[in-house]
Amino acid sequence: AQSVTQLGSHVSVSEGALVLLRCNYSSSVPPYLFWYVQYPNQGLQLLLKYTTGATLVKGINGFEAEFKKSETSFHLTKPSAHMSDAAEYFCAVSEGFNKFYFGSGTKLNVKP
Amino acid sequence: DAGVIQSPRHEVTEMGQEVTLRCKPISGHDYLFWYRQTMMRGLELLIYFNNNVPIDDSGMPEDRFSAKMPNASFSTLKIQPSEPRDSAVYFCAVSAESMSRANVLTFGAGSRLTVL
């Protein structure tokens, strides 16, 4: 079975600092990987996804993630945090066919 | 497109009452999912449908929970009778079949249920 591990349930950064949210997965086949963001009282929104091809994926709001097969990781980064980035972020993995597995989420706090 | 529409957004009810949550999916998206989100258990898949047919309901916690999709434009999740431990945010999400198999989930805003 698939599993997704997000290291750190809470991450706090200063405005303008680097954001790094970690995600590791287990999969027996090449996976499809996703990052979703959830703002308070809203549903999850897709930030970016990796399917095939280039391992560095760019998403919305300046976020990007790199698929590293050897490390089974898909960490999310943003060079400079903004106050509006404060939200909860979920990593998800799929082997296709609509079976998605979500991590437990990481709440990002951005300090002024 | 208005996206996935869920109602009610908030529901407060008393233990033992019947609760019905509703979802209007995006037209043309042939997969519909019901998820539950709690602090303790995170996001849990309850059930999903393909072309209005339930495919996997192994996540439905117990017989008190039931879900239907009578047509492509509407789905319901019903809890009868409700219990305090059912308090959670319930999300409806949809996806569309794609050649790449890398289907993307589109979520509704959720229904926050509180059972007293």
Describe this structure in words.
The complex is a heterodimer of chains A (112) and B (116). By secondary structure, chain A is mainly β. Chain A has no helices and eleven strands. In chain A, strands 2, 4, 5, 9, 10 and 11 form a six-stranded mixed beta sheet that branches. In chain A, strands 1-3-8-7-6 form a five-stranded antiparallel beta sheet, with no helix packed on it. Chain A starts with a strand and ends with a strand. Chain B has 116 residues and is an all-beta fold. Chain B has no helices and eleven strands. In chain B, β7 (65-71) and β8 form a beta hairpin. The mean pLDDT of chain B is 92. Chains A and B meet through β4, β5 and β9 of A and β5, β9 and β10 of B.
Task: Lay out the secondary structure.
The complex is a heterodimer of chains A (112) and B (116).
Chain A: E1 3-7, E2 10-14, E3 19-26, E4 32-38, E5 44-50, E6 56-58, E7 64-68, E8 73-78, E9 87-94, E10 100-102, E11 106-111
Parallel strand pairs in A: 2-11
Antiparallel strand pairs in A: 1-3, 3-8, 4-5, 4-9, 6-7, 7-8, 9-10, 9-11
Chain B: E1 5-7, E2 10-13, E3 19-24, E4 31-38, E5 42-50, E6 53-56, E7 65-71, E8 74-79, E9 88-95, E10 106-107, E11 111-115
Parallel strand pairs in B: 2-11
Antiparallel strand pairs in B: 1-3, 3-8, 4-5, 4-9, 5-6, 7-8, 9-10, 9-11
What kind of assembly state do the chains in view correspond to?
heterodimer
> Distance between the terminal alpha carbons of chain A, to the nearest Å?
41 Å
The number of distinct β-strands of chain A equals 11
Number of helices of chain B: 0
- The class by helix and strand makeup of chain B works out as mainly beta
Order of helices and strands of chain B, N to C? EEEEEEEEEEE
Strand content of chain A: over 45%
Radius of gyration of chain B: 14 Å
